[in-house]
Design goal:
Length: 175
């Protein structure tokens, strides 16, 4: 069976997702950053998350085993940052960013940031699945930037929706 890859990509885009920027540093200290929507929590104990990076990415060597990186969950007003880091560009960071040494560059204004080290890497076809151990995190308030069907937008809760604690035992209707 042969799949129409464009149609498959369109089908994948039906899934609404948050938008993140992952930053790190190459072995020589050069700052790198990529826009990522293939981000997920994995485990609380130990605290793990994952994201995927194209094998053809020029940033690949910044995310080898044991290297530090940061995942920034973007807020609604950060569409420009998302687009800037989604492109292959020589300059993504403001002047002076590369002075910070081995610390991953920070994206100001993000809803939350997860500081991590690369714990594992797995084959994912034309992508590399990167698992990070969370060493620290910070969070602020605001609305998340959402991406679906090739456009940015916002999350709107259903009128009857109530907050659901993901760790509680389900016992009936959530609405």
């Amino acid at each position: 069976m042969t799949l129409d890859l464009r149609a498959l990509r369109d089908a994948f885009s039906r899934f609404a997702t948050g938008v993140t920027i992952v930053t790190g540093r190459k072995p020589g200290g050069e700052p790198v950053g990529v826009t990522v929507n293939s981000f997920s929590s994995v485990s609380l104990s130990p605290p793990l998350l994952l994201w995927c990076l194209q094998r053809e990415s020029t940033s690949l060597d910044a995310f080898t085993m044991g290297r530090a990186f940061a995942v920034h969950v973007l807020q609604l007003a950060q569409e420009r940052e998302a687009m800037r880091f989604a492109r292959r560009a020589a300059v993504k960071f403001p002047a002076g960013t590369d002075e910070a040494g081995e610390v991953p560059p920070l994206i100001e204004g993000a809803l939350c940031r997860f500081d991590c080290t690369v714990e594992a890497q797995h084959d994912g076809g034309d992508h590399l699945i990167i698992v990070g151990q969370v060493t620290h995190f910070v969070q602020t308030g605001g609305d998340p930037l959402v991406f679906q069907d090739g456009v940015f937008g916002r999350f709107t809760p259903l009128p009857r929706a109530r907050h659901v604690e993901a760790w509680e035992t389900f016992s009936g209707d959530w609405f």
